[in-house]
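Check the record.
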Amino acid sequence: MPGLLHHLSFAEAVYRMLESHIPIDKVSFMEGNIIPDLAIDKAHSHYRKSASAQGFFVPDMVLVKKDLFNIDDPVKFGMYCHLYLDYYFIEEFLIPEFIWDTKTMKVTNPRNHKEWDVQTFFSPSAMYGAYMEISQLLIRDGHISLVTVEELPELLPNTGLSVFDERRNNSWKNRFQEYLSQGKDYKGEIFDYDKLLDFFKKIAFEFVSEVLR
């Protein structure tokens, strides 16, 4: 659910905490953190099941762990990391952060009382635009480096799982550059940067703690 740079920033934080405990090939791990969003069949690549709030879907983490939790395979481990963040972002940040009125189909940010209809909220003019705002700050503050992104190959590895290996033909790097070129100044109408960053740090710590248990 978060954007590409959010996933890579999260993966960077996880890698930094794990590298002194577990040898992980960083490039392969980062590749894995991209792959789920490149799949054509998003419903299956994200193991979708109903979330705690009506209308939302989250990865079924029992199945995700069974299929992808393999520290010895850094690509699959990265894919697991991607879906782990998706699950907790939706359940523990996105759903609690807003007021979701299913009767009026309105979304309200209680922090500033701004309101959107559901379709507008999930669009480039609202939530996905807010992702761009946050991405610029993640780069600015060194949570992810564009050098790291540049080191990743255009052709990402196959996983041996057909649902992940049937991918869109268009270049992920071209789409990424187009995404960055739309850079937006931070307004904070949707996401509070500091709060979101603290959340990413918390979930990264929990992820690493589970791995090292």
